[in-house]
Batch of 3 targets.
Target 1
Amino acid sequence: MYLISLFCLLAIQLNPNNIPQVVAEMTTEEKVLLLIGDRKQKTTDAGDVGYTLRGVPGAAGMTYAIPRLGIPAIILADGPAGLRINPTRQGDSNTYYCTGFPIGTMLSSTWNTELVGEVGAAMGNEVLEYGVDVLLAPGANIHRNPLCGRNFEYFSEDPVLSGEIAAAYINGVQSQGVGTSLKHFALNNQEVNRLANNVVVSERAMNEIYLKAFEIAVKKSQPWTVMTSYNYINGVHAAENKHLLTDVLRGEWGFAGAVMTDWGGGYRSGAIIEAGNDMIQPGAKKHIEAITKALENNSLSMKALDECVTRVLQLIVKTPTFRKYAFSSKPDLKAHAQTSCKAAEEGIVLLKRGALPYSKNTSIALFGVGSYSFIAGGTGSGDVHKPYVLSLDEGLERSGFALEKGTAEFYGAYMAKERKRCAMIDGQKKPWYIDAERPIEVVPTKQIETASQSVQAAIITITRIAGEGKDRSIEFSYNLTREELQLIDKVSEAFHKQKKAVTVILNVCGVVDVTAWRDKVDDILVCWLPGQDGAVAVGKTLCGEVNPSGRLPMTFTLSYWDVPSAENFPIILPDKPFNYSHYRNFRDGEINSDIPNVDYTNYAEDVFVGYRYFTTKHVKVAYPFGYGLSYTTFNWGKTSVKRTPEGYNVSVEVTNTGKLPGKDVVQVYAKGKSPDSPSLELKGFVKTKLLQSGQSQVVTIFVPSADVPSSYRLVTLRNAQNK
Ligand code: BGC
């Protein structure tokens, strides 16, 4: 012990100004360890290489500590809907819950970068106060196809909206002195065979769509780290992609941080390091051996190793752990719950309006299991251990609505029975609690009729959850089930007979079909998976205390088959059962090319993703990208486009011409005609402040010249419609 302490005193100790000297002092063994995650999570410091200083239970990973050189282990934990750590610890009566914020898709539905920055700051504060150094979020992959199981973690089908929201998120989190990890770089747009799927994509689609969101985020926020994705891109594994990591990310975009692999991603450890991927997470002994071997046989250079070590040390010296920040484990969860609710209020999208808003004491019959068991977030690493999830009935009662008892009682009894059944399913170790297994209730017609006579309105909640490792299915997730459609039919018929309104709340992870049922109901409110207090936001919106101002970050099509990538995506059809465990030979790192959409996915739609396709090819949609209604009306003055040496200032005066205060979103698109380019492309956007009735605001959006294709002009639009 004495000898170790003496050794520590003699060795150089890491500080932000002596990184080259520390690297020079490190043994090869120490360098290799620093690049491999330490999954032991030891809490003691034995003073040896390989022992970590401390751990945060439930964190996803950490680095090795090298105490002799004053290098602490840093802690990495998941997001993106908040910090994901274990809420309780053995032998400790304190709790460590984290705030459940709205999912990424809902944050982008706010179209409010300032608000997303506030959300980021609240999350970052929890990261700091719970002793974590880097939040493994946000995710900036594009919603290429509505069935991708992780779309809910991602922002949008558009790269500008994704990139701007990601930058705001990162700047917010990092304002607290902790880091982020922008993920999954890049083209991780499906979960089926995610470890070995080879994305076949054009250079142009990569640059204009899939990399663009990352480029904007990197340039505007400099995340401390970037996480590579699991998939291959045109035959090269993302984690081993030197061109992407070194030439593009660092060279062209000026990224100054560290890169890490996704958990267990990448095959050849030497190639990962040589590519400029600095950390292999969560790390295993085999990586240490493989890197050592690669150094010995010269397939990995010491220069590349040293560069990665340098970047990891540069990351470490920025962290709260290195600064020895005395974290409290007591973030202000109450204040953060309010921020979470505020974000939910702004992310709710009103798709159809007939009866809303309801007056405060309206009596309501609440249908749908989701009404009593609201879904706050997705599953997998993107889930957060939140202190509570308010259910919709509670949210509505808080807003003064009177709920019809008979329907509530039916659901109470029904759900008690179903919970037993689901406990059985969980008992069989089903990985996630998914839609197909969610209870599907059949409410007795008599109950619906009785309710329609005794209350003033009906609300039906439709829920969809999704999560990592699995894509959604058309039958169980995208389309409404037969029982759900019947419920909408019966409730609408009974309530409309009584001249009473029916509102549908979509408590969903992403796009669902609306074509089959939207004409039957009066109002449709998309409240996504809105975080722990989302039900309060919904209650306030239903009664008009909050005026909806969210806009769709993706298109709702008339049919799944209208989606441009529909054929080039793993589809799970009843007559074509798909084997989810079909992970093809991924361990040997060989690319298979037999099964389309499993072994490889052809991005045949190229740059025509989402609204870029629908507007250019004149395909009718249910609700376009950027769409969302309000309880008030807005008038826009004449748009002025002024050229500056660097670009264009696009201005427009927005006036609230209705009765209620509200916020509007101005979207600037480049519009034009070209045989091989989309006819509309979002170039910028801004959300107004809360405008009182009669109040105006001039908003100005700057668009760099380089972003506007020649012969295209800039226009302000309410949503992506090619009118
Ligand atoms: C996910 C990442 C996550 C990591 C650590 C992986 O399975 O793809 O998004 O950050 O696990 O939990």
Target 2
Amino acid sequence: MALRQIVKFGEDILRKKSRPVTNFDERLWTLLDDMAETMRSKDGAGLAAVQVGVLRRAVVIDVHDEHGLIELINPEIISEEGTQTGGEGCLSAPNVWEEVQRPNIVTVKAQDRNGREFTLTGSALLARAFCHEIDHLDGILFIDHVKNDGIPGHSDVTSK
Ligand code: CO
């Protein structure tokens, strides 16, 4: 395993759409292992492959609940329920923290590292992590969900 460099807000790649994972091989497993190690080294709750410069639909999440480390390959949100509003940050923007509204219960369909399909339902922080990380796969950043409050310096970190 190895730590990978995290891409920061303002870099074009974060706005690109990631491609589906088609090969469930050694290369993917190394990527996933490296992503988990990189996320943990920064005390993050989630990391998408694009954040380490790989435009593939792969995500790791660990919100320190009973699920432990979750790997989502080619994930899709299949249902959402309720709303929650809370603080949210991103390893690609270490000093940005904003209130973001998200669904409170989210079910995802995804594949595991061997290509087997599964569904998983999360609430609260896990639901938030599902939404945040899956957004990354489509080039969407959490600040896109923040209503502009008109204060210069807020919510404009992507404009450079
Ligand atoms: Co993020």
Target 3
Amino acid sequence: MLNKQSTSTKNIAANIETILYDEECIKQRVKELGSQITRDLAGKVSSENPLMVIGILKGVIVFLADLLREIDLPMELHFIDMESQSAGTRETGLQELDGRISAAVKGRYVLFVEDIVDAGLTLSFMTRLLWQSDPSCILVCTLFSKENNRMMDIELDYVGFELPPVYVVGYGLDHDEQYRNLPFVGVLKQHNR
Ligand code: IMP
Ligand code: MG
């Protein structure tokens, strides 16, 4: 299965059991998502009212870097770091951390970008918080979705791939902070999990 691995990451790729999505396949899908977003939002955002793209750190960075370059619309880029918030201080911490984001959201088109929506807790929390700042519209784009694991009722506007309930790494996604630099997405060998 490892016939399409990149030579630049062959050391870490040795820990991968199966590649689920190779570089070409991801690239093609990211292109399609970018075109779809561009088509849907053309005429709704402008240089006076640019799209607010909000990336949820940090698994999203690789996907987001590629997606941005496929969106042909005026836009601003923001990030929210959920991982730095402990459960007890999440709400207040985020409001303080992202005061600049909430101040700018009123009347805007917002596109949340995620790497994976699993149970949906992160996204449900983020959208609930952001609606308080009165945006015109919140759209959600995720590269992967694990619908079978969902605990929250959330609407996804753009989904790259529907995943089976397996843990995947690569293309920004980690296992204990490693493997984000793999150019493809796959499942780790049993003894590396
Ligand atoms: P949720 O709040 O349960 O939807 O969790 C989503 C977050 O969990 C993602 O943004 C990832 O950071 C992490 N996550 C869920 N599934 C995976 C996976 O298969 N690989 C890597 N990270 C994952
Ligand atoms: Mg994440």
